Amino acid sequence: MRYLFHLPLSPYCRKVRLVLAEKRLPFELRVERTWERREEYLQINPAGTVPTLVEDNGLAIPDSTVICEYLDEAYPDNTLIGATFGERVEVRRLVAWFDGKFDAEVTRNLNGEKYIKRLAGRGHPDATALRIGYTSLREHLLYLGWLAETRKWLAGASISMADFTAAAHLSVLDFQGDIDWAVSPAAREWYARMKSRPGFRALLNDRVPGMTPPAHYADLDF
User: Among residues 135, 189, 182, which one has the least CA distance to residue 167?
Assistant: First the structure.
């Protein structure tokens, strides 16, 4: 059986879960507490990070970008990276935007401080980081809303890895009640469409000890 080492509120792990579900590939989840530095886990992923996907044949694939590129090459029936060079450039640009810029300015300052730090026993959230995260989130929501208003999906005419990457980051923040969706109705409408996809249901059913998501988190109509 294919299985994925993950943490429930990691956007990178959630991105891979969404892509696996979109491609209708069965898999099992295994929680990996990365701060414990398990020797058995380090043998398949020396970086000690999540996610890591292990295929039926034992092939271990680390890093969400590497995993998603692999999945699109190995299971190409419904490509999520685009059909033309131009489409692929735009998909990869937006994946890099959300996994890089958005993560550094928003996800790490909010999810990293409120969830990951607590989970690893590293103390209380830093107020300055939270303030930076919330300010940056507003600007990113406006950009995402502009994309959603001017295109059918974030990178163009077809749903792509860009949509799943953005949705994974936002789903983590929405779980913690950090998003003011009134900032961008267009972003809210796009996210509602993403939530309605069958592969999203498992994420909406996630629960984390000591944390309760807002009522709208699992509501497909907000």
Answer: 189
